[in-house]
Amino acid sequence: MVTDMTDVRETETKSAKEGEKFQILADYAPFGMVLIAKDGTFKYMNPKFKEFFGYDLKDTPNGRTWFSKAYPEREYREWVLSKWIEDMKSAQPGEKKPRTFAVVCKDGTTKIINFISVMLNAGETIMTCENITERVKAQEELSEEKERLAVTLRSIGDGVMAMDTEGRITLMNAVAERFSGWTQQEALGRNIEEVFHAVNGKTRKKGENPVERVRGISEAVDLADHQVLISRGGKEMLISATIAPIFGKDGSIIGAVLVFRDITEKRKVEEDLLRMDKLESVGVLAGGIAHDFNNVLSVILGNISLARMYAKPDDEKLQKRFRDAEQAVSRAKDLTQQLLTFSKGGSPVKRTSAVQSVLKASCRFAVTGSNIQCDFNFPDNLLPVDIDAGQINQVINNIIINAQQAMPEGGTIQVGAENIVSSGIAATQGLILNKGEYVRISITDHGTGIPADRLSKIFDPYFTTKEKGTGLGLATCHSIIKKHGGYITVESVVGQGTTFYIYLPASQRGETAGRRERQVPAPGKGKKILVMDDEDMIRAIVGEMLDGLGYRAELAKNGNEAIDLYRKARESGEPFDAVILDLTVPGGMGGKETIKGLLGLDPKIKAIVSSGYSNDPIMAEFREYGFEGVITKPYKLTELGEILHSVLTGIDTNSFI
Length: 657
Description:
Blueprint: H1 6-28, E1 32-36, E2 42-45, H2 47-53, H3 63-70, H4 74-90, E3 96-104, E4 110-119, E5 125-131, H5 133-155, E6 159-164, E7 169-172, H6 174-180, H7 184-187, H8 192-195, E8 198-200, H9 210-214, E9 221-222, E10 227-230, E11 236-247, E12 253-262, H10 264-310, H11 316-344, E13 351-353, H12 355-366, E14 372-377, E15 385-387, H13 389-406, E16 411-422, E17 427-428, E18 431-432, E19 436-445, H14 452-455, H15 473-483, E20 487-493, E21 497-505, E22 528-532, H16 536-548, E23 552-556, H17 559-571, E24 578-582, H18 591-601, E25 607-611, H19 617-620, E26 629-632, H20 637-649
Helix pairs in contact: 10-11, 10-16, 11-13, 12-13, 13-15, 17-18
């Protein structure tokens, strides 16, 4: 029998050549490769496989050995094995099964490997592997970098927008979304000017084009000042913005990043600080004006008081003219004190008073000439309070003016007061009052009311809803009431009206000057009084007033002269019974320094401090500086007599203390 083996030999030769080619390809392949028999034996490993892991066929002759060495942790090994079995059960000849596992190499290092297994027709499996450790590491670093960037962009308070060279948006952070009203998804690919809609806050002209601004620059630059960003919903905010180029690897500009922030509040704070500086200047000016103006008023009021004393008591028409003139001067004095309180604050110079008298006078004056009237309701047993009448008058004026503006068509304002007792626990109108007796003042209008979102802000400095308002009226009221040891609060219903409540501690002094008729001061009986004042007219009029009260007056124009006169009087055996010292002497020794010198001569001196500039703390805390009494300029004859009587006798008349 003869068999022709030519085709067989050719096939075998061809297969051998194909195998040789496969061997060459496998040996020089840039990826690892292993041929696995049906029984799990490793029949072939290429050099790259050995290079990746360090294992050869002697180390890992089969799959069982490979799994024990490549995956030494039992739990992880069982998981990998389960995935391998799962793939083999479902694999079809020629089907690729990709998997990624962490492999422990012979030298102990761990690598991230991409495996691709392919089952052959004969049941064998070819598995290729690619070392992607560096790629995974780079991806993780990139992911971490992106996360850090995302966290940073989320955390900063600035809006950030990135764009390409054509001005199309490529990125926005959450702040930019909130400021602009656009979400990143909506804004991507849109032109920056469509999303970042800015105008000049002063001229309202279109703002700078960020894309044009970034061309030709190599570093970050600021956009123009006074930029106002208008959001998608129409909300406006003052912003500051910076734009910087984004450079590619070759150094060319591939885009730009725009960073902007809301400076509305910052600008407001800057304006407030500037306004405070101006107010400080006004305060200094007001102090000088108050001092000089009150000196003039002192002369006027002193002459009125003397004329009233010299006039016939039964001439009612003339006496009424004098009373009206005195009231007008007192009103001018209150206006001066309002200017001082508005500009600098100042401690109240209190005296025990019937608050209903202050309320009636203040309210009637505030509504004069308007279409508003006040309806008063006071109980007969209303307790007295210790107040600075001028400052409380300012509080009432501010509240009444606000009420008038809330009632443009006119109407009635209810003004009342009542006694209340606080246990220190119960809350009243949102306040927890300290324990004790209070007089609660209520002022109610029937105007437009205050919206709830504004109600908590009305006492904040500079908060105002009026176009020309300063926002200082109610803030000043709050400051004044607080310095009186009291509380102020408000209730309001839109469309129905507003009620202000003022709580003032009840006086512990008892009967008030306001509840009794002023008595003619007791005669001086020749007692000696030293008057120190830098104004010639003041010295002259006070000297004459003292003469009219029965005192003997000596006059000094400054502290040095007063100390010299006081010393000589003591040495002569005819000392002064009391001294009245002007607090402010421009260019000379005033009352604060003078009293120190006089106390050195006579620790028991009876001294009264006087000033038209009552913001000085000495006027409120006069006893701490060695004075026995205080009197504010301008003052009437009766007021001068009462304070002298109080200091000389030690009897508290409650008039000016």
